[in-house]
Amino acid sequence: MSDMKSVIVPKSDQLNADDLLTGEITVKITGVTIRSTPEQPVSISFEGDNGKPYKPCKSMCRVMVRAWGADSAKYVGRSMTLYCDPNVKWGGMAVGGIRISHMSDISGEMAMALTATKGSKKIFTVQPLVVRKPAAAMTEAEKIQRRMEPFNEFLLQVSDVEAKLGKPLLAATKAELEAAYEAFRVEQGAV
User: Fold this and answer.
1) What are the pLDDT digits (tens) for 155-167?
2) How far apart are CA 69 and CA 189, in angstroms?
3) Distance CA 56, CA 64 (A)
4) What is the pTM of this model?
5) What does the alpha-carbon distance between residue 40 and residue 43 come to, in Å, rounded to a whole number?
6) Mean pLDDT of the chain, nearest integer
7) Coil, strand or helix at 184
């Protein structure tokens, strides 16, 4: 084993900035829990969190409320990209912290002034996150149509190709389809 990532994972019950030292992650929210405690009242569960939810700081909670509204039930199914910002300070020392760089369900870039230190604010910007939808499974007819595309130049029917293959079109391997195509080219004098 040569991958050091597994040995630097911090032992914790939540996602930490150290978890993001090797790069940003994009998470899809599965639940939000709000407790009436002053320290880390918000826990955001996400797909694949392995029991380590994201517990945003007050500033990142403000970003989410600005972007998605105050009703945390509406956050479920939405996505955001989290990264480690090494400049985040705690007790006057730069210790690093988790920040949001991109969020789904926003129409454009969003900038807002957030508290940087007591008495000073700094502009924080979030970009829109484009979440790719999984491709719909092709129907059997679409699969047949796609496999027939190379044979269209010969004006063949599916039954003609299946006769050459000696099997159903969808059961043929890529190599068998290529061999059948070459056979038709020879027959048609296209070689």
Assistant:
1) 889 999 999 999 9
2) 67
3) 10
4) 0.63
5) 7
6) 87
7) helix
